[in-house]
Design goal:
Layout: E1 2-10, H1 20-36, E2 40-45, H2 55-60, H3 63-71, E3 76-77, H4 81-85, H5 89-95, E4 103-104, E5 108-110, E6 119-120, E7 122-127, E8 130-138, H6 142-147, E9 150-152, H7 155-166, E10 172-178, H8 181-190, E11 196-199, E12 210-212, E13 215-219, E14 226-235, E15 240-249, H9 258-275, E16 278-282, H10 295-308, E17 312-316, E18 327-330, H11 331-337, E19 344-350, H12 351-361, H13 364-367, E20 384-387, E21 389-395, E22 401-408, E23 411-412, E24 418-424, H14 434-438, E25 440-443, H15 449-461
Helix pairs in contact: 1-9, 10-15, 11-15
Length: 463
């Protein structure tokens, strides 16, 4: 007896809804086709379906995204870091209150070690006489989860335990992994019992899957550019499983789901109403310039310093996407100019290390850097803006500027002294600034950069 199961998967949509009505039309058509042919179909999302850069997600705390998943008839999802650590504890704990599908996350717990009632470590689905276990794991950003009141376990230890529990109960085990491509490869090398890994987080695309030993790795990119499909053929008699994979580029989809498009338009109208909440009345406009001194960028640097209780502060002007006009400023205005899921943080740097960071920040290469990731949703880094730091420059013969001296609170920087530097968590990831990456850090959550800006504006102008 053979059973064929078609497993469709999306990942890292990040609230990019431009293609979503076409994706839903395609998925509904595929489901109708499989039902007509008496075939099995499963639809899964592998996390980061939400992203608070989008006003619909921001206004609804992600609940609008869950409505869209319900309407598209998803059978199960796991969470990514955008669900896990860009929402407050309460927001995440209530995000899926009205979900019509199970949320599969095996490695996230309350602080007391108990599993949230709305999470399942795995789900076993039956297709004819075949049984498949679906396990979900998410990237273990331990520091951030703990700050938000969660515990997160090592995904490898978690998967090892569950494979031991499930192997004799099912014909195949599929891992929903929001860990990234490198960890997916390690999972496949470590656990040959995994039939396939549906991956996310690193936005990789495997057009026909990637086989690592006995396991087929799958990935469907980002922003709904692709829909992935994993087809399993299970020979129950021989307990043999064949797996093939492909991705469908959504640019090829011609038709939209009219109902989904209508629902999106309605929810966007409601989001605009929610985000129209007034924050403050500005007596004058606050200008922003990515490459020259500007009042809005300076105000943000001051706000960071006050929020984090730093000695000094630094933030790149590129995190502010537009000016704030004179008059009423709404919650939507603040979100529009600062949509990034970026948190304030404080790092401790010796003067010599702080000097190296400043020298690198002042290079034209860093100012002009166009980047994506680490929470940044802007276009270009822009110049570094400081609070309580003065960078004295001189012009060289070739016309280029050279940093001559650096002053901290009007005193020449002390290279042996340790300074508490208020900044943004983006600089602590990767290797933009190695000195910050290696430094002792203190993160401030769940508030984001825009919350700090709104707080500062209200303190300044609300009398």
């Amino acid at each position: 007896m053979r059973e064929t199961i078609h497993i469709y998967h999306t990942n890292d949509v990040h609230s990019h809804f431009e293609r979503w009505p076409k994706v839903v039309h395609y998925l509904k058509n595929e489901r109708r086709k499989h039902v007509k042919n008496n075939e099995h179909m499963v639809l899964l999302d592998i996390g980061d379906f939400i992203d608070r850069f989008h006003p619909l997600t921001e206004a609804s705390d992600g609940k609008a995204n869950v409505i869209l998943l319900n309407d598209a008839a998803y059978d199960a999802v796991t969470i990514g870091n955008n669900e896990g650590i860009t929402l407050s504890h309460k927001q995440l704990d209530t995000l899926y209150a009205h979900a019509t599908f199970p949320i599969i996350v095996a490695n996230v717990f309350y602080e007391n070690g108990k599993r949230p009632h709305w999470m399942k470590p795995y789900v076993i689905m039956t297709f004819g006489r075949a049984r498949i276990a679906f396990i979900g794991v998410t990237v273990p950003f331990q520091t951030f989860y703990e700050l938000l009141g969660w515990r997160v376990a090592d995904p490898f230890d978690t998967v090892a335990q569950l494979i031991k529990e499930l192997s004799k109960q099912v014909d195949a085990i599929i891992l929903l992994s929001h860990l990234g491509m490198n960890d997916d490869e390690k999972m496949a090398e470590t656990f040959p019992q995994l039939t396939a890994i549906l991956g996310g987080h690193t936005h990789h695309v495997f057009e026909h899957g990637k086989r690592v030993n006995e396991t087929l790795l799958c990935g469907a990119g980002k922003f709904a550019h692709y829909v992935g499909c994993l087809t399993l053929t299970i020979d129950e008699k021989n307990r043999k499983v064949d797996a093939v994979a492909h991705v469908q580029h959504t640019d090829a989809f011609e038709h939209e789901c009219v109902e989904t498009k209508r629902k999106l338009d309605e929810m966007m109208d409601e989001a605009a109403r929610i985000l129209a909440q007034p924050i403050v009345h500005l007596p004058e406009s606050l200008h922003i310039d990515w490459f020259s001194p500007s009042p809005l960028a300076s105000l943000l640097a001051q706000a960071l310093n006050e929020w984090c209780d730093g000695d000094v502060a630094m933030v790149n002007a590129g995190v502010l996407l537009a000016a704030l006009p004179k008059g009423v400023v709404t919650k939507g205005d603040i979100h529009r100019i600062c949509p990034h899921p970026i948190n304030p943080c404080k790092v401790y740097l010796r003067g010599s290390e702080l000097k190296e960071v400043i020298l690198q920040a002042e290079t034209e290469q860093m100012k002009q850097l166009r980047m994506k990731g680490f929470g940044f949703r802007g276009e270009v880094m822009g110049q570094m803006v400081y609070d309580r730091i003065i960078v004295e420059k001189e012009q060289l013969v070739d016309g280029q500027e050279h940093v001559r001296r650096i002053f901290i609170n009007h005193q020449l920087i002390d290279e042996q002294k340790t300074y508490a530097v208020a900044t943004i968590d983006m600089f602590t990831f990767g290797h933009l600034y190695p000195e910050i990456y290696r430094a002792k850090k203190q993160y401030y959550m769940p508030e984001m950069l825009r919350d700090v800006l709104a707080w500062k504006l209200k303190n300044m102008y609300e009398r």
